[in-house]
Amino acid sequence: MKVNGFAHPAPSDPRRLLSDHLRHDLGLTGTHVGCEHGVCGCCTVLLDGAPVRSCLMLAVQAEGHDVTTIEGLAPGGSQLHPVQQAFHECHGLQCGFCTPGFVMSVVGLLAQHPHPTEEQVDEGIAGNLCRCTGYASIRRAVTRAAVLLAPLTPDPSPLGGEGANPADRSSSGGEGAGTSP
Amino acid sequence: MTTRWFGARVQRAEDDRLLRGRGRFTDDIDEGALESVLVRSPYAHARINSIDVSAARAMSGVVAVYTAQDLPFGGTDLPILIPHPNLTHGRTQRCLASEVVRYAGEAVVFVVAESRAIAEDAAELVEVDYEPLPVVITPETAARAEHLVHDDVPGNVAAEMVQEKGNVAAALESAPRRKHFHFRYERGAASPMEARAVWARWSDGERKLTVYDSTQSPTSIRGGLAVLFGLPESQVDVIAPDVGGGFGPKIMLFYPDELLVPYAAMQLGRPVKWTEDRQEHFTAVNQERGQVHEVDVGYDDGGRVLAFDDDFIHDGGAYTPYGIILPIITAGQLPGPYRVPNYRVRFRDMYTNATPTSPYRGAGRPHACFVMERTLDAIAADVGIDRAEVRRRNLIQPDEFPYDVGVGWQDGNTVVYDSGNYPKLLETALEKLGPKPAGENVGMGLGMYVEGTGVGPYEGAHVQVLVSGKVVAATGIPSQGQAHATVWAQVVADELGVDVRDVEITSGDTRRFPWGVGTFASRGAVTAGNAMHVAARMVAEKAKKIAADAVLSNPVRYAFGGGTEAATQFTPKARPGPPLADGEEPGLEATGYFSPAGSAWASGCHAAWLRVDPKTYRLEILKYVVVHDCGKVINPMVVEGQIEGGVAQGIGGAFYERLAYDSDGQLRNASFMEFLMPYATEIPKIDIEHIETPSPLNPLGVKGVGEAGVIPVGAVIGSGIEDALGIPITEMPLSPLRLYELSTSASTSTSTR
Predict the structure, then answer these.
(1) CATH fit for domain A78-175, picks 1.10.150.120, 1.20.1250.20, 1.20.1290.10, 3.20.20.30
(2) Nearest CA of chain B to the CA of A158: how many Å?
(3) Which residue of chain A comes nearest to B641, CA vs CA?
(4) Angstrom distance (rounded) from CA B643 to CA B569
(5) Which end of chain B is more exposed for a tag (fewer CB within 10 A), N or C?
(6) Residue B14 and residue A96: Cβ atoms within 8 Å?
(7) Is A2-69's fold the same as A78-175's?
(8) pTM metric for this prediction
């Protein structure tokens, strides 16, 4: 399997969960485990670009697939991925434990719906539990991420959609923005 | 002080590594650690006849198996953290039970192995012969005392306390109107996304114990471990690294693993870790909120409260490691923002065969608020005024501060509100809420609260200007997501006139700051925030003095920020004598403390329009407004995050989450599949407004806000549903099923009348 672009051998133990394999065999501890029964979404990673729960998959099932974890979004300390950047700007995280799972879900959501409606946003993040934020800031982050991603993705709307103005990318994200007082 | 950063929406310093997956939570730390598992009692109450660990010990890959008999401290009761004279029958568990277990989930055997899988398999081989005993699961059955949780605690009563202000009996007698109410609030669970975890290493060479613990109080853990293992505190480091949410239960200490993991690491000479799984978290980690209240209230024809008499029982759980702080807070906060001229409150803290209780976000207050707010709604209905008006007529006015409520507070003083503007909270909330939306089965929920925040005794901070000009600062209390690294940096940057990005904060690491109490009771901003302010100011004063000595100037001339003059220790001094005068210390650093004279009382008003589907009883929150006052706001973005998260947790606790214990004391829904924490689809947008009434009790004028969001939510949801459906709501939590039952029984009783 490939993890964040690099080929890795399958684990020797066929019963190894993908989440445990990533965390304990590969040292990719950014993927968190919150419930181990597929409800909380903390362990969400991308499998060939689509969000999956790594606690509900055996590692060997990922053989022949591309796995992307949170560490793979902005490798080597490079500029944050637009979804990560949006979470930062909109205070979309507090303790940060559920955050990698949310970010991966949102990457998947925006790949499917680059200009999501409010309902699509709620549905898209409704597989992830957060106990800190009350979701309001996460919703704002998804909307902001769509704006940041818009210049990078093909636009289905002839009028340009909500995020077509490239200037939006450099502007700060409304309420949650700016380090300066 | 030139305020530049205080009050600004400064983005968080802690985000970058958390967003990149570079956070460091306790289970992320490995370093070849052995892994461990606890064997827990499946029974809520049972005698242990025998424990056989021979098969587990013999299993390949098992390194050690501990029962109580194998521990030098196995026969010692764990401490009562906050003793109180009224806690006449305090009882705590032992690290591992060996005679009687008193709740399902109580730890019995500790297994350490080369891997988690081996430890779990070995735990399955442990044979414990239990003899089941009668189970006492609700506070009501505890009060009936047909069976005892502890043989030597008569009536299952751990503590009883009666307080009275004025003359309640006489005032009730003479009141024009009088009503009795029965209110019931069930247990809830904090359920942080990261369950608990501990990692420990003993270094024989350095004689040093290093512990990583997902705790809200590393300093207290350190003190306890040092005493237990006979080490000087300097040889014990306890670090709360990134902690994935706390919400109260992680302030409890000691959980058995917090002793067992370090002990095993010292015994075995290898690092040992333990990570709780979600299922065991449900019963192994403290819960809260179970109370049953009997209220008699007297009032006049205008709806003004004349006398309030509350007799309540508190579900303490199987042990009282945290003392009786919860019912004390309930008793102290029950009057809320209202004048209650005659107030009597009696509580009994009852033992039950359930997980022990200790503070969970809100800590005694959501239930207190529910009781008072529901009572006011009933008074309004009885005298024929609206819900806002009854509150308007009873609120303490802005010119009445400081206001002495006349009953005891958790810090040993009496409850005295320091400042506030309660009418403004109410009027602003009503204005923001707006008119009733169209449609059937729409109701208004309204609830007000006060919260005593920032209890002492103290917190401290160390602030140091590095040679590079950057600033580092540390405090003892850890963060579980409250943005300490950002907001403390704002406070320090203002005092030192530096950019907030040049201040790096460490919190919750005893290597950097060994003194302190913990992150709980909405106290971080008040205690540690002001300690940061004090320490940073000391550094600023020192810098001015050094600069003045060095360059023949008057210290007051030196303003901070943007300056380019520099001095070194070799710069000639302007004054006579040695370079370091008597009492002076080298280095631009200082340690400061802040100890509050009393609690800073935050307050707020929540108002909501909600709709209940009359067929499915689905709850739809159409609008939710929060107007709150936490004094001066350090960072509105962070405060709003605390409020939004608190309200969501309140909504979960009010309508979705329920700990379904059966009469055998088994928690029947110990998973996220069945304990329904809300997703984004259940949580509405929250409309927030800040009102700032500075606290006169601390230099920054701040009040705590961590728990505020959750406190009135049960009252608001109850109030709104009652208004929408026209059935009395006197209990929490609710659910579609429960609303169906209540509606059915209400219509049945109406038709038979």
Answers:
(1) 1.10.150.120
(2) 31
(3) A133
(4) 48
(5) C
(6) yes
(7) no
(8) 0.94
